Give the backbone structure.
Amino acid sequence: MGQAKREMMDHEETVQGVIIKLMEAGAAEECEGHGYPINRGDDEAVEQVKIDLAKEYGKDEADELVDEAVSQLYDECPGCAQNAKDD
Ligand SMILES: [Zn+2]
């Protein structure tokens, strides 16, 4: 595996870890039925995760990682939306 590819995978893992932190902080929640990470729209909790991560990654990197993680959250669980459509 090339170095660039490995770095990309490390990055993906880091973003997944940030999503878990967002859940722990209450900025995101996992749909119990489908496991999708849902954005709770809690800006304060997002800000708190950025502050926490800044200690580890530095402010700029933390902001970037958290923004990327938030962009991967769903506004609405796709599984639940599908169920609602079927009703
Ligand atoms: Zn769901």
About this structure: The CA atoms of residues 27 and 43 lie 7 Å apart.
